Amino acid sequence: MRAASQVLEEHRVELSTLDREIGDGDHGENMNRGFGALVTALERDAPDSPGGVLKLAATTLISKVGGAAGPLYGTAFLRAATAVKDAAELDADLVAKALRAALDGVVARGKAELGDKTMVDALLPAVRAAEEAAGRGEDVPTLLKAAAEAAAEGADSTVLLVARKGRASYLGERSVGHLDPGARSTSLLLRTFADVASG
Ligand code: ADP
Ligand code: MG
Ligand code: MG
């Protein structure tokens, strides 16, 4: 989460610039505020399990990010926390389950489908790649690397799509030609988790 906060800080301007093109220009600020608050909360009182950290991420992001992304990422982390229960460590199967639960949460909350030009276009392929990797018996770093690569490809695919959910959908066809900011932040998060897991 600390690494994620740092990466989101580095990409703050980029994410808000993407959001300025097809939204209201605040996605970088929103994500930064949320993950900054999460790092502060972790410094104050770090939970001693992965599930506890995921739950703290959920509650912090829900209260600090705002907009569309806050409740969506908050729900994603909350469902992930529920999926890993009180496991002391996350193996590949649990990481795949957590990612699937996160996606299900985003879809339950936002009702976006693949191709609607949202974070789902990054997260759904990532979940599929993670489940395939877990099925092959890969370790966590390999699984997360596969998920991150699929997310990056999925995020890039949003450039050609017409937005059907969120603020960008107000633009209709004019949203074509722009990368979706939420898909980009999802891709950045997964790449960071992969990098941290690889050590
Ligand atoms: P807001 O649009 O309220 O300013 P943000 O700018 O922080 O919120 O987040 C925008 C991102 O949220 C979009 O780029 C998109 O990826 C994601 N998003 C918006 N609506 C939905 C939805 N219904 N389902 C999934 N993701 C969505
Ligand atoms: Mg916005
Ligand atoms: Mg906004």
TrEMBL record:
SMART domains: Dak2. SUPFAM superfamilies: DhaL-like. One of its GO terms (cellular component) is cytosol. It comes from Umezawaea tangerina. InterPro entries: DhaK_L_YcgS (IPR012737), DhaL_dom (IPR004007), DhaL_dom_sf (IPR036117), Dihydroxyacetone_Kinase (IPR050861). One of its GO terms (molecular function) is glycerone kinase activity. This is Dihydroxyacetone kinase DhaL subunit. Transmembrane segments: none annotated. Keywords: Kinase, Transferase. Residues 1-195 form the DhaL domain. One of its GO terms (biological process) is glycerol catabolic process.
